[in-house]
Amino acid sequence: MDSEDLPHRAFVGVSALLFVASTTGTIVWRASMSAMSEMLMPGGWTMSMTWMRMPGQTWPGAAASFLGMWIVMMVAMMLPSLVPMLWRYRQSVGRTGETRLDRLTALVGLGYFLVWTAFGMAAFALGVATAAIEMQLPTLARAVPIAVGGVVLIAGALQFTPWKAHHLACCREAPGRGRTLPADAGTAWRHGLRLGLHCSYSCAGLTAILLVIGVMDLRVMAVVTTAITVERLAPAGERVARAIGVVVIAVGAGLLYVR
User: Fold this and answer.
1) What's the predicted TM-score (pTM) here?
2) Residue of 45, 72, 139, 171 with fewest CB within 10 Å of its CB?
3) Rounded CA gap, 244 and 236, in Å?
């Protein structure tokens, strides 16, 4: 076996185990939430208990519970597209003679998912506030199905914007493609944060779809994960993003039509 093949196999093996563990955790979380009754709202739709406190639970406890499961879900969803980026980082830093590759790669991953953790905190606060308003204003609650279609349409249109193209390009760029990063912990941490910011911005529209259609729906998670992975890793990522935009706009128009 090639001496360079063993680290690659170990890296892929650890990544696969992490993906399986996070996917399993997401499925278990979804099953536990599905066992709870959803709230029927004016307009004929049901509100997920994701944005509610459980009996005897405090709001900090509810936020911590959501955030824990959000992180697990994001690891499962983002890892397929992140792993190649992390491997190219290892290759780039390895060319400098650095031997602490595992530690530095882990720092990149931690920085990356810290950004998604902050995104989850904002999503929970927005979801709780929106749910409270919808329960107090039945007229607004009736408009939610139309608003969902509108959000999906906007998410689809976002796929065609220069803003999306810029952040997708930054997200796809990685060490190993013409540049080498310094092999130190501070650079690794900043690289992870920067990559997380670009990727969260690039995925903003697709993540919004997940939040408004069903954060607990495994089918939606799978579709969004596939879309994010393909547009990030395919050779013609920008064209793929636009193709995804066409599909998303069609879905949004369909949601509005049935209403």
Assistant:
1) 0.89
2) 139
3) 12
